[in-house]
Design goal:
Blueprint: H1 6-25, H2 27-61, H3 64-71, H4 76-89, H5 98-106, H6 111-120, H7 128-162
Helix pairs in contact: 1-2, 4-6, 6-7
InterPro entries: DUF318
Family: Belongs to the UPF0718 family.
Keywords: Cell membrane, Membrane, Transmembrane, Transmembrane helix
Length: 164
């Protein structure tokens, strides 16, 4: 594995030094830290595998011009719909989706659609029955509608602030 980002290299070196220092100072805490890390990794790995599969399929099937048309400047309502619905349907921790979003952004995905995707992740379909149970239908519908509206507004604001 080649790390091209110098900041990432420094961060990896720092973490390695911290773990080695921890192992030298208190090996039991080091083992517990490694245990927590492996549990976290086992939880994230299936989602990461799914994202990598999606990225691979996108790289095979979606050419840069198609990505630009679907998610680029002229994507219009289709791009917004794709970003918001994709955000709602995505699962797992958001940082697992960062590589896919970064690849799509390099292919021409608008910053506004990246922001809308991440904001729309707050809507979790499996949690809607719980929201209804605890807060009622009115709150749930209004809350979900606000999340949808603000995902788009947030996207527009991000695009205006980042204009690249």
């Amino acid at each position: 594995m080649t790390i091209r980002n110098p900041t990432a290299k420094h961060f990896l070196a720092l973490l390695t030094a911290i773990y080695l220092g921890l192992a030298a100072v208190d090996f039991d805490i080091f083992l517990r830290a490694i245990s927590v890390f492996t549990k976290l990794l086992s939880n994230v790995l299936p989602i990461l595998a799914l994202v990598l599969l999606i990225m691979s399929l996108l790289n095979l099937k979606i050419k840069p011009r198609i990505a630009k048309r679907m998610l680029g400047k002229g994507s219009g309502l289709k791009g917004w719909t794709f970003a918001v619905v994709g955000g709602i349907l995505s699962s797992g921790p958001v940082y697992v989706w960062y590589p896919l979003l970064a690849d799509l952004r390099e292919e021409g995905m608008r910053d506004s659609l990246v922001a809308a995707f991440m904001y729309a992740r707050a809507i979790k379909i499996p949690m809607i029955p719980l929201l209804v149970y605890y807060f009622g239908w009115n709150f749930t519908l209004l809350f979900t509608l606000y999340l949808l509206i603000f995902s788009v507004l947030n996207g527009l604001l991000v695009e205006r602030l980042t204009e690249r």
